[in-house]
Amino acid sequence: MARSDGSDEVFAKLRRDAAGCRKCRLWQGATQTVFGEGALHAPIMLVGEQPGDREDVDGHPFVGPSGGLLDRALAEAGIDRSLTYTTNVVKHFKYRTRGKRRIHQRPAAEEIGACRPWLDAELELVRPRVLVCLGATAGQAMLGGRPSVERERGRLLPSDLAPAVVLTAHPSSALRQRDSESRRAAVAALVNDLRVAAEAAAARNTR
Q: What is the pLDDT of residue 5?
């Protein structure tokens, strides 16, 4: 059933329009636009860098290895992913080929800028109580400048985008750790940051 406030219709139109986006060249090598998904008017909105190989094929954000780790971290932090909204600052997969593999490449500033209207529209529609930036690229795109994940992570940061903003590492960074101890520490840090987001969302819900 559609929401009485018309947000479902607005969201459906955004997805249709974004599917045909040609504002930068990334669409040429991508399988499809990967738009955000989740609960409209979610208390927590999670923003990553861009879809990966699996997301590009499936057409959904955070369904690959990083998404699996994010699911586990959210659950451990007491956050129901079905009640969040997840998206990326860039909606097409940017990569280079190595044999049969497609290797992730960081999006350029002009590609991030080309996608910004879609992200702004998502923010306007969802209006989260807490915005979680997953990784340095998302943090830079959302907060400006060059925010340091290590220095700023797990804190409530000031922003006009949402009542509270939390910067943390992208789940893929934990997957890149070379040994199991480092991976456990990276996941634990991510969970702690997500708990800060959960507590901030709950606190703002009671006001």
A: 80
